[in-house]
Amino acid sequence: MNVTSRRRVLKGGLAAAGLGFLGLPEWTMPVLAQGETVVPFTDIPANFATNPSEVVRVLDIRTIAGALTPKDQFFTTQHYGHPAIDPAMFRLKISGLVERPRSMSLDDLKAMGKEDVVAGFECSGNGRGRIQGFASNGRFTGVPLRKILKEAGLKNDGHEVVFFGADHGEEETDFRQQKIKLDQAFGRSMPREHALGPDPLVAYAMNGEPLTKHQGAPLRLIVPGWYGVANVKWLSRIHVQRDPYMGKFQSRWYRTMYEQKIDGETVWNETAVTHMRLKSIVARVSKTGADCKVTGFVLNDGTPVRTVEVKIDNGPWQAAVVDSSNGKFSWKLFTYTWKGATAGEHTIVSRATDADGYVQPETADLASKKTFLEDNSQFPRKVMIA
Ligand SMILES: Nc1nc2c(c(=O)[nH]1)N[C@H]1C(S)=C(S)[C@@H](COP(=O)(O)O)O[C@H]1N2
Ligand SMILES: [Mo]
């Protein structure tokens, strides 16, 4: 089959999948093999939009074609829009409890080293509303954060490392009877131990190209294994301090409240959003002859993934094949061959289990979680077999 006729098959499959109205360019779709057709999902609302605004983009997970998400499909979001930055004037400042405060140009930074990490992340608010498309995977290149901090020399009492973006906005804070309005930069923090650990990266490139404005150009923090909010874009200041940082996006906007029962007593837990909870998602189904191929992805904090299983309708859990060739913090793509699918509507769901024995929960298992972030529940999909 030549390319043109294959494209026609692809288009036919997509039209059947109801993708036409999204106006997705044909090339963003994985090429189908000869005789392969897309099996349409019936659970995607007609108003599902991948481009709700200029500065927000949702990945259409049906288009996942490989480990790395292309830069113009990578999901994107932020709180204050995009700040204006002149790369020539740009400086990364290192301040606070350090021996040698710094103001570094991009070239200064690039001269410090170059490391790569393939890291997948999702927004902690990702979920069914966006058909799980607030998630992506990229190869990030930059300077390990620990190198930058060691060069600046953390003082002994520098326990907390705070990261500020160049973006800012006026925020109202309640303090007892007061309401305080302040213009503040987007800020996030982590304890010294994590900042000096092997994983966090100050990145200037993704998939071999400079970061785009959407991705935080010229510099962003990447905290592999943590939710998206940790990956501060337009990174412009690293500030070291003694006490825990309690900024809005650290301690108020991104937190999770859940009930724990301990010896029959209720203990309310309220934690900051940090490491990603284990999640697997069915992203795409296609059909060749009598066999269907179910493809999906797994995200977590880097704990090895032991199994991914797929369940069709009320059948048993069946092992899927997990591609773990992409390293600790990459998302892991999985496939499952569904044989003998009958015509009509079916439900497909996946669940992942990690090496610690943690099993991806069902929605009902998360009833004690009272806030909507960090929803890693199993996500049953509906498909229509022609
Ligand atoms: N400076 C800055 N960085 C930020 C944010 C922001 O509002 N400002 N939003 C965070 C959130 S909530 C997410 S999910 C990720 C999204 O990163 P992406 O646009 O590259 O997907 O950026 C994070 N970094
Ligand atoms: Mo987010």
Describe the structure.
- The chain is mainly beta.
- The chain has a domain at 92-258: Oxidoreductase, molybdopterin-binding domain (Sulfite Oxidase, Chain A, domain 2).
- It contains 5 helices and 21 strands.
- The protein has helices at 3-17, 106-110, 145-152, 192-195, 248-252; strands at residues 36-38, 92-96, 102-104, 115-122, 135-144, 160-175, 178-191, 201-206, 209-210, 220-222, 235-241, 255-262, 265-272, 279-288, 291-299, 305-312, 318-319, 321-323, 332-339, 344-354, 381-385.
- Strand 14 (279-288) and strand 15 form a beta hairpin.
- The structure holds ligand MTE and molybdenum atom.
- The site of molybdenum atom has 6 residues, from loops.
